[in-house]
């Protein structure tokens, strides 16, 4: 892969764009699932689709956050179920959420809690939040594409400088929490262009443009020299066989300021950036770091031309013997509250609330009954999501769980229904779109019979 290191500051050891030394930009083949950047550009050029620039921001909370402690409080349940947090009223009459989300509560008319996602696979991975499908479902040859791959394939790039399908998915100790999905049967050109990761050991497939920082991306002469050196090394190792017109387009991505500017948070209005709060570069055990600035980065990438941005945020698996469910909630919830409120406020202030959809979720929920460690275990029977933007009818709750938060009592929702809603928001035709897999079998964006959440459209 091509790795572009940011310039570290002497003050705190992080890069000027807010990414730590352990988190670096990857621009090149491995970030695209093993194909060269020119190959991806070739596929995009061949698609010739194009559409209005609508986009999706997919925020994945690795580990399975507790639905009861987040956005489906049960104050009338027994203490061993309702937990340590009280509900607070929101600016939508009759809707309450956890007391640790006061910012979101004050603008709940711009959010949509979905309280009854009921078909979780039960696996500790990002697969269902990236594809909508269960891991054990029938796989077409080549596998199911990530949702962003469908969007990239069907709508193409907004411009040549920013890939349509990008990710800010950190490589995690538990590897399945850092997987942004693949191009599946669509092919690796539509796989996510991942922009962050842990610093890997030196290897033949991890070649660095030495001395090229984000600040110097605009220096075409120096970048060309560094790229020429990379090319020689790549040719020697057999990673590149030729350079053609698409390689020149690849160079355009590297040399234009558009992608670099989107990733450079020093160019953001400091007052706007401050709304999001402060991140920690520390990886949360085997999860991702709580890089709240990546919420702002996702918005900047969308503005620059990305159509689908996925990111993983922190670690939400707190049911071990250390009993950290409630202490970690007190640490994580306020930061998530601030970041989500800032992101949705930004979208509305910039007039993007009709065009950009946001979804926030994890792989499953948590047991209503608190365990002996004062924590909650895995609970696939029901989980939650938070939606915003996309022109959806906000200020309402989708679904109702029973008094103890054990199961959907009304309006169970499937992961694919959420994706069907997101696809419709960005202008994809659910019923009229067929894409043939590698065996020539027609496939649809979602399974037949799956419809968008009608209350939101």
UniProtKB/TrEMBL annotation:
InterPro entries for this protein: Alkaline_phosphatase_core_sf, DUF1501, TAT_signal
Q: Name one Pfam family in it.
A: DUF1501
Q: Which domain of life is it from?
A: Bacteria
Q: Which PANTHER family match?
A: BLL7424 PROTEIN, DUF1501 DOMAIN-CONTAINING PROTEIN
What protein name applies here?
A: DUF1501 domain-containing protein
- The scientific name of the source species is Gimesia chilikensis
């Amino acid at each position: 892969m091509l790795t572009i290191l940011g310039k570290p500051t002497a003050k705190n050891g992080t890069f000027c764009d807010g990414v730590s030394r352990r988190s670096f930009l990857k621009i090149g083949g491995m970030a695209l699932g093993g194909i060269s950047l020119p190959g991806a550009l070739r596929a995009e050029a061949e698609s010739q689709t194009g559409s209005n620039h609508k986009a999706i921001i997919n925020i994945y909370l690795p580990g399975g956050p507790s639905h009861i402690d987040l956005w489906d409080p049960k104050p009338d349940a027994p203490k061993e179920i309702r937990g340590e947090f009280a509900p607070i009223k929101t600016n939508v009459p009759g809707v309450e959420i956890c007391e640790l989300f006061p910012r979101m509560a004050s603008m709940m008319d711009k959010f949509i809690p979905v309280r009854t996602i009921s078909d979780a696979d039960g696996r500790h991975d990002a697969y269902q939040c990236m594809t909508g499908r269960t891991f054990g479902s029938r796989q077409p040859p080549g596998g199911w594409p990530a949702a962003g791959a469908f969007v990239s394939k069907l709508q193409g790039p907004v411009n040549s400088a920013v890939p349509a399908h990008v990710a800010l998915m950190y490589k995690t100790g538990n590897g399945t929490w850092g997987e942004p999905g693949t191009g599946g049967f669509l092919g690796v050109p539509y796989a996510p262009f991942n922009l962050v990761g842990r610093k890997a050991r030196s290897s033949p497939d991890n070649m660095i443009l030495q001395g090229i920082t984000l600040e110097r991306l605009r220096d075409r002469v120096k970048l060309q020299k560094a790229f020429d050196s990379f090319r020689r090394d790549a040719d020697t190792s057999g990673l590149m066989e030729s350079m053609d017109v698409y390689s020149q387009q690849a160079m355009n991505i590297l040399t234009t300021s558009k992608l670099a500017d989107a990733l450079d948070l020093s160019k953001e209005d400091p007052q706007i950036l401050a709304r999001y709060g402060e991140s920690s570069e520390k990886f949360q055990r085997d999860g991702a770091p709580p890089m709240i600035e990546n919420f702002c980065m996702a918005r900047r990438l969308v503005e620059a031309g990305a159509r689908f941005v996925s990111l993983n945020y922190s670690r939400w698996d707190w049911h071990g013997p250390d009993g950290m469910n409630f202490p970690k909630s007190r640490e994580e919830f306020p930061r998530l509250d601030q970041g989500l409120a800032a992101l949705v406020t930004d979208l509305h202030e910039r007039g993007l609330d009709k065009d950009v959809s946001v979804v926030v979720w994890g792989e499953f929920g948590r047991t209503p009954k608190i365990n002996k460690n004062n924590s909650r275990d895995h609970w696939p029977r029901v989980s939650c999501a938070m939606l915003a933007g996309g022109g959806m009818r906000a200020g309402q709750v989708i679904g109702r769980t029973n008094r103890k938060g054990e199961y959907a009592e009304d309006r169970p929702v499937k992961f694919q229904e959420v994706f069907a809603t997101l696809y419709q928001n960005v202008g994809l035709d659910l019923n009229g779109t067929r894409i043939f897999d590698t065996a020539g079998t027609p496939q649809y964006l979602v399974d037949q019979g799956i419809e968008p959440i009608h209350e939101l459209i």
